[in-house]
Amino acid sequence: MAYDFGTIEPKWQKVWEESGAFHVERGGDKPKFYCLEMFPYPSGALHMGHLRNYSIGDLMARFLRMNGYNVLYPMGFDAFGLPAENAALKFGVQPAEWTWKNIEHMTGQLKKMGCSYDWRRRVETCNPDYYRWTQWLFLQFFKKGLAYRKEAPVNWCESCKTVLANEQVVDGGHCWRCGTAVTKRNLEQWFLRITDYAQELLDCLDSLEGWPERVRMMQRNWIGRSEGVRLSFAIDGTDLTMEAFTTRIDTIFGVTFVALAAENPLVRQLAAVSPKGDEMLAFAEKVMRQNEIERCAAGGEKEGFDTGFFAVSPVDGRKIPIWIANYILMDYGTGAIMGVPAHDQRDFEFARKYQLDVVPVIRPVDGPIPDGSSMDRAFEDEGIQCNSGQFDGLPTREAISKMALWFEENRWGKREVNYRLRDWLISRQRYWGAPIPVVYCDCCGIVPVPEDELPVKLPMDVTVLEGGGSPLPGASHWVNTSCPKCGGPARRETDTMDTFICSSWYFLRYTSPSSKDAPFDFDDVSYWMPVDQYIGGIEHACLHLIYARFFTKVCSDLGLLPKDLREPFTNLLTQGMVIKDGSKMSKSKGNVVDPDEIIRRYGADTARLFILFAAPPEKDLDWSDKGVEGAHRFLSRVFRLVEENLEGLMSAPSPMDVDSIGDKALRDVKRQIHRTIDKVTRDISKERQFNTAVASLMELCNSLQSLKPSSPEGWSVLREGVESLVLCLAPFTPHVCEELWSMLGKNGLVSLCGWPKADPKALEMEDVTVVFQENGKVREQLKVPAGLSKDQLAERVLSDPAVAKRLEGKEILKVIAVPDKLVNVVVKP
Ligand code: ANZ
Ligand code: ZN
Asked: Which percentage of the chain shows pLDDT scores above 70?
């Protein structure tokens, strides 16, 4: 009988499913462990990235289960989103139908992978039972003032025909989904007040020690806290003032122009009283048509317009020209800056182009004051204050703090903290999403849908439009409704929610997936949260992983979660990509390997083993057909090892103490068994080096194969080795291990067995006698632990007191070490 995965895998999947082997409930004596993977979008089929993500997650879930934890390991689908609408157009099916078909298909694929999910807990964000609570949560945000509507210039993707949140504009101004360059539009939209949590989102990052530093850094930069001064300038000849935000108040004496963003309301106000008004407005409008990349790219073309007005410097009454500049953005600080060409490169480029003065007010610590007219770039480093009155001579840091206080004392400005983080724009002009549960009434304005009328269900009898727009505004039978407050005619909100809202709380729903009167049960969520191990892609560093943290904090403040639960994910593992021939697998490159095909040809166990063995989880994984075959051959070998020795194994005596084994070779194998258990345990739990764990299991298998026992002692060692091998492999390749476990006559599932424990006595190395030689002559005999490397052996022998004494005062030319045998030292004669 050969290794027949085609029979073995479905057989054990059925046993697991029918026995409810992986069902969990809250409570009991075991410690809890919540293992979570980022749930997939039901695009139609799993890809290799999924397979990698879930192979890692299932390994960890199974390992912890065997180690005595009560493991929550759920799966679901992030099921709203644009691809369903595109598919609807392409194939003429309803988005709902397409999505549900994919969900069922992908669930089948996940089952074929052998993942140990508690399938009773599956959630689908497009299920009305789920999005009812997404809407309910929105209403709680709304009541708290954390959801609001405002008109603002927002990011628009012309290809997706919808607005986008700032986090969804990536790679310097492109749509995260389709890569189209994003433009700005002025629209009234719904926002969530994530900025209220900016400081806490930043502060808590320090405590997330189980997260990769890279992700924490990306979030810190995204939140972008900066401390500075907001100062105001009177505008000469008007009663207007302008405000600017600067992080470098120490450069105030070097200001040679100020500049407004094109969108700054002052532009209109000044245009109204200026002879050049029309020209000004035309320039502003031209800038507004540029996209963000054109406006802010470092080294991008700076464009400006001289308004002819002057701002009055608060510190010395100097009159400073007011410009409009394309590189000033409206949604940061005050939408206006003080321009300091000598110390800010963008201002420098602007000043050179428009022949504005360059006045240095900081000099290098060890150099003279730069000459403004001949500088070839701004001096942006810290240094010593100059040309700044009573502040001359101060180092930059001190100047910044002293001058900020000086501004406050004179009421010229106020210290202020600014964040780059913006409120989260959540309206989408799309059909396939959770409807925002509000109506618009002519009398009452914005009226939330009463909670007991949720969910506001998406209408199913609409046709997705050819041009790509949402069919909701045109669905008059759905849009027209009555006002819950006054009963008069009202219109439903036709925007749906960003799908990132749906995925901001799914991990809470898993704890109590069928809760009928709350999004999740307080006791369940208190028991299971936080997630102990989260596994997913780095691409979510500044998307899902910020949003989910925000939602957790708000839910905690709303009393839906324990007060002290401020962070959802204790440990985060960001897996690397799967690449083939050096580049990421993608349809466009034509280098895609289909998981289904691999599972059909080699079985799920082989696919999982290859993925876990081929690279450490955080590194990119290079797909190799040879590697897959190697993994398959290894599993066949393990299978044969049990099968061919079955008779002897079944009658073998139970494991023996290492000291009572007479045969040295058998003792060595016994020690190797326990060293392997020890290493695999550490590799999985501490180092997360699953690949090296597999490598040591392969070595163990080799040793066991060459054992060929001829005595009860030998059979005992082989049996212990085989059982340990099967137990240690079980989280990696669960199906074949269940089969081998039952062949070995064991009752019960290997998946639910206890993890093997390394015997400390068998971990100790045996001693060997080595000789110490001087210029080839034997001088000493020493007992050292067996198995030391060359370096370890040399170090050990040279530090022996007797050896050290012999070498005293001699010049060592060379040290030669032969493990377990000798150390020869060549000394100058
Ligand atoms: C004067 C100055 C002198 C500046 C100097 C820098 C260096 P961070 O650190 O990112 O917070 N700034 C302020 N608002 C802006 C806006 N709406 N659009 C474009 N630039 C803006 O950046 C703060 C600095 O960015 C501010 O400090 C301001 O330039 C500029 F030697 O003011 B600074
Ligand atoms: Zn797009």
From this structure: 99
Q: Which ligand is nearest to the CA of 302?
A: 1
**Mean per-residue pLDDT for 47-64?**
97
User: Cα of 248 to ligand 1 centre, how many Å?
Assistant: 8
Nearest ligand to the CA of 169 is 2
Given ligand 1 and candidates 344, 347, 381, 421, which is best to mutate, with the most ligand atoms within 8 Å of its CB?
344
CA-based torsion, 52, 57, 58, 59: positive or negative: positive
- Rounded CA separation 756/677 (Å): 7
Q: Of 576, 425, 510, which is closest to residue 77 (Cα–Cα)?
A: 510
Q: What is the mean pLDDT of the chain?
A: 95
Residue type, 624: S
For position 323, what pLDDT does the model report? 98
pLDDT tens for each residue of 737-755: 999 999 999 999 999 999 9
Ligand 1: which residues within 6 Å by Cβ?
226, 245-248, 251, 261, 328-329, 332-333, 335, 337-338, 340, 343-344, 418
The letter for the amino acid at 640 is R
Percent residues over pLDDT 90 in the chain: 88
Query: What pLDDT is recorded for position 298?
Result: 64
Interval 143-200: pLDDT, tens: 999 999 999 878 999 988 899 998 899 887 899 889 998 888 888 999 999 999 999 9
- Residue list for the binding site for ATP: 587
Query: Which ligand is nearest to the Cα of residue 159, counting in written order?
Result: 2
Alpha-carbon gap, residue 36 to 23, rounded angstroms = 15
Question: Are residues 609 and 635 in contact, defined by beta-carbon separation less than 8 angstroms?
Answer: yes
Q: 157 C-alpha to center of ligand 2: Å? A: 5
Quote the ligand 2 centre to 102 CA distance (angstroms): 22
Distance separating alpha carbons of residues 83 and 42, to the nearest angstrom: 9
Nearest residue (by CA) to ligand 1, atom 11, is: 226
Q: What is the pLDDT of residue 299?
A: 65
pLDDT greater than 70 at residue 565:
yes
pLDDT of residue 810: 93
Residue nearest atom 29 in ligand 1 by C-alpha distance: 246
Nearest-CA residue for atom 8 of ligand 1: 226
Closest ligand to residue 158's CA: 2
**Which ipTM did the prediction report?**
0.92
Distance from Cα 297 to the centre of ligand 1, integer Å: 14
CA-closest residue to ligand 1 atom 26: 246
What is the pLDDT, as a whole number, of residue 365? Answer: 96
Q: Rounded mean pLDDT of 534-555?
A: 96
> Which atom, in ligand 1's list, is nearest to the CA of 418?
11
339 Cα nearest atom in ligand 1: 1
Letter string b/e over residues 69-78, b meaning 16 or more CB atoms within 10 A of that residue's CB: bbbbbbbbbb
For the segment 780-827, what is each residue's pLDDT rounded down to a tens digit? Answer: 999 998 888 899 999 999 999 999 999 999 999 999 999 999 999 999
Q: How many whole angstroms from 135 Cα to the centroid of ligand 2?
A: 24
User: Binding site, residues?
Assistant: 587
- Ligand 2 mean position, distance from CA 158 (Å): 7
The atom number, within ligand 1, closest to the CA of 333 reads 14
Please tell me the distance from the alpha carbon of residue 202 to that of residue 761, in angstroms, as a whole number.
48
Nearest residue (CA) to ligand 1, atom 10: 226
3-state helix, strand, coil in the chain (%, to 5): 40, 20, 40
Q: 172-187: string of b/e by CB count within 10 Å (b at 16+)?
A: ebbbbbeeebbbbeeb
Domains, the chain, with CATH or none: 5-125+504-589 (3.40.50.620), 134-193+423-499 (no CATH), 225-419 (3.90.740.10), 624-763 (1.10.730.10), 767-827 (3.10.20.590)
Nearest partner of 140 among 606, 475, 454, 513, judged by Cα: 454
Q: Quick check: 504 and 550 in contact, CB under 8 A?
A: yes
Question: In a 3-state reduction of DSSP, which class is residue 622?
Answer: strand
